[in-house]
Amino acid sequence: MSLNPKPDDSAAAAQAAVSTSIDQAGDGAVAVAVSGGGDSLALLHLACRALAGTGRPLRAVTVDHGLRAESAAEAARVSRLCQALGVPHATLAWDGWTGRGNLQAQARAARYQLMADWALEQGIGMVLLGHTRDDQAETFLMRLGRTAGVDGLSGMVARFQRNGVTWCRPLLEFDRATLRAFLRDIGADWIEDPSNDDRRFERVRARASLEALAPLGIDAAILSRVMQQISQAREALDACAAALARDLVRQEQGDLVLDWAGLAAHPLELRRRVLVAALMWVASAAYPPRREDVLSLLSDGGADGQHTVLGCVLRQKGHALRIFREFNAVRDLRGPTDRVWDGRWRLDGPHDPALSIAALGEAGLRFCPDWRETGHLRAALLASPAIWRGDTLVAAPLAGSGQGWSARIVADFHDRALSH
Ligand SMILES: Nc1ncnc2c1ncn2[C@@H]1O[C@H](COP(=O)(O)OP(=O)(O)OP(=O)(O)O)[C@@H](O)[C@H]1O
After folding, report:
1. Closest C-alpha among 92, 69, 70, 89 to residue 79
2. pTM listed for this prediction
3. pLDDT tens digit string along 134-173?
4. Which of 225, 240, 266 delimits the end of a domain?
5. Nearest CA to ligand 1 atom 22
6. ipTM of the assembly?
7. Which of 145, 162, 306, 394 is the Cys-Cys partner for 387 at CB 3.0 to 4.6 Å?
8. Which parts of 49-181 are beta strand (E)?
9. Where does a domain end: 282, 297, 327?
């Protein structure tokens, strides 16, 4: 038996991988995120074949980021291709670019959010993405250039939860060339993105670098196996960190209290993982804080004091480090009462479209005379969810003023996988 079996990269194997992923979704509707490129269109065809005759609904979705002149026409073309396949298709428009910050990162976050909201509305539990082995290899090289560690180099996961939806990448073991050959074989069309040849893009340069590594015997398949090995190391580290967190991290409603002195006895990488997981949980963050920020917090250990990282406040007192949400990070966050707020709070009570959830803040705390009896820190309460009618406070369940409302965390810290 080979220890490193070479994945079979034929179209038939890709078909089997897509069918398996879809079977794992249960009986519900499935969607394919289609950019229009060869990878996601091959995925759409494979998903269509997997579902043919099952009666299970398949949908397709495209996000038009509006960042290139051709994007609307491309989305319309995807829509026509889907129509020809009998797959209902939706185009979701993004117009949230502020002109500031990292455009690619913002576009990606918005894409996931738009597609998740759409999927939830449609009752779709699983969305398939067309990432391939080439994407994996290019990402690996790009991350090497950013001094990535075990997490960054372990490759994309085949399945993950984000924004309330399960995302699945059934094609991670398959080459772009295999998928394009499959499309050609079945006479199917796809859109060639002109930026694929634009060397201003890091991914395009990574693709060229990968070709240059061929004389060393390094290709996408080899890098994929290296990534699998790093993934296994990451899983082992995560398991150790989760066990450590169970012993040394206590959840108090929305806050976490870390036994800082207890943690200090453990290897730096485990301490770092516990701290990152804690920060990401309190902030409901999809991405970890900068590595240097975390390392500086860890090296600062022992001294009483306060820090702010990733929209969380860390307050150390003696052996305990309390992490709670920072008011400034949520001061402008307002949402309907029947939706999760700040990624982790659900409020139960007499829902009403005229009401909304927003942070309690100083303006609300003033109307909570009993807040001291709750035992919560004042600064933590400021960032806690409250029910408002316009600017009038209706209820503050965590600050002793429930008025028929209660607040609960949707996924407790220790139930959440310790991986980022
Ligand atoms: N505009 C889009 N609309 C719908 N789906 C998309 C869009 N862009 C990308 N996708 C989905 O994501 C997959 C990966 O695309 P791509 O590699 O361009 O994105 P990425 O930003 O690198 O993704 P990630 O951040 O998830 O690694 C595509 O195969 C497709 O399934």
Report:
1. 89
2. 0.78
3. 999 999 999 999 999 999 999 899 999 888 899 999 999 9
4. 225
5. 135
6. 0.95
7. 394
8. 58-64, 89-93, 124-128, 159-162, 165-168
9. 327
